[in-house]
Amino acid sequence: MKVLFIEEFLPQEMLGLMWVSRAIKDAGHEAKALFLPDTKWVQKLVEYAPDVVCYSTTTGMHMYYADINRKVKEVLPNVLSVFGGPHATFSPEFVKTPGIDAVCRGEGEHAIVDLLDRLRDGKDINDCENFWIKDRKTGEIHENPQRPLVQNLDSLGFPDRDIVYEAAAIYRDSDRKVFVSQRGCPMPCSFCFHHAMKKKIYNSRNGEYVRKRSVTHLLEEIKQVRAKYNLKFVHFVDDIFNLRNDWLDEFCERYPKEIGLPFDVILMANMTTEEHVKKLKSAGCVYARIAFEAANDHIRNAIFKKHTTRQQLLDASHWIRKHGIRLGSLNILGGPGGTIEDELDTIRLNVEAGVEHPMVSLMQPYPMFEINEITQEMGYAISSLDEFPVNFRRTAPMLSAHKHQLENLHKLFPLAVRNPWMVRFLPKLIRARWMYRPYLVIFMLHAEYLVAEQAKIYSSAQGLSGPRYWTWVDFVYRLSTKGVLRVYQTLFARFARRFANAERQIQVSLQMGDERVVAHMD
After folding, report:
1. Is this structure's pTM higher than 0.85?
2. What's the rounded Cα separation, in Å, for the pair 403 and 412?
3. 30-39 pLDDT tens trace
4. Nearest to 278 by CA among 319, 339, 243, 311
């Protein structure tokens, strides 16, 4: 069977797609990827003539992919369309959308192979586990149960990077590549998908849900990637890199000897010790991110369920800076019950901690997430799913009296952390609704500069020098490159609207610099 993944360009290569592709190819099937925007995508679709077309979508992008799928069905009416990712997992009723044949909930490696094997052998697919499937003859929806979680992550092999790198040179040629050592997270954060996946999709406990690859398996993957592709910096996207002391000890002892490349991580403040930071520094860590989320104790712990104290955040931050590692923070504005003063206090906490690379998003009460239930119980109105923002760093779906102030503050947040003198002027600066777009431009430019700063640290750790690695030169290079991409994006969007429904515009978002997505990619 031939499978085509249609994906949008994102800030980094997609590990989920790579792992599913590995399973598909290991089972004897074919797989290719096609990235949008691409003005020749329909031509490429027809030339490849897939049996199955797959999409992975978040809430906010789901209608965009539904429109793309309608065009696919016009050209290839017999192709089986399968949707996966967060929106399909937590809103499986999406399968009722015209043109969609199935949605996959949760882990897809074994599920997609089962589906493809049945299609190849001419067997019934309606009872295939992990899928909600629409009967092509009757239209009946078959809601199938979940198969067990994969417990031995090493058994999945290495992610198939070829499928992405052959389709998109921008990922192949990048100095930094993405790796992950675990699946699942033990924390109950109300705004995160993990608690919903663990309890509502799999009804599992932490011992079954939180899994770790062996250090040997992870290091072997990095070695293979370095041998085949350009690799100078390693970007780990584990939600909590310091989850297990024994694993961290082995990693920090072996990584500098066997790999020796600079890397970055996400740490959990209430699990972090100074000894962790010292070991990570000696292993080659140059950048570490801590999830602050909110300074207000009630919002951070009662609403967001972070279970961290302000002192733990400050201690972890102090140790990171003390040992010469760049400090990044993850923050969320718009927690239900919060005030503008509470959001300003989050900026002050970042300043107090000495954060060098602040990242911030707007709270999104996604379906089945506990924060959705909390928000509604508190009486807040929420936009419909089809009106959720494509990018959670643009607008907030929760309706409130100070929504425009919150969105303006969000755009000025990183700049204010780096320039604390601004904080006292923020209440006035965020009042004007019409300043949203100017602030958005400032936000995007500043984000690119922070990334250029980060790249300079990576380069210095590698001993790379010369004008190309100067911060301002890299900053200008990034702007010029992405400027071309955004022009291309606009042209593609105009092309795409030719086949979109009259009442709906297709939105195409090239989030190439979205560091919050990079930090919390799953």
Report:
1. yes
2. 15
3. 999 999 988 8
4. 319
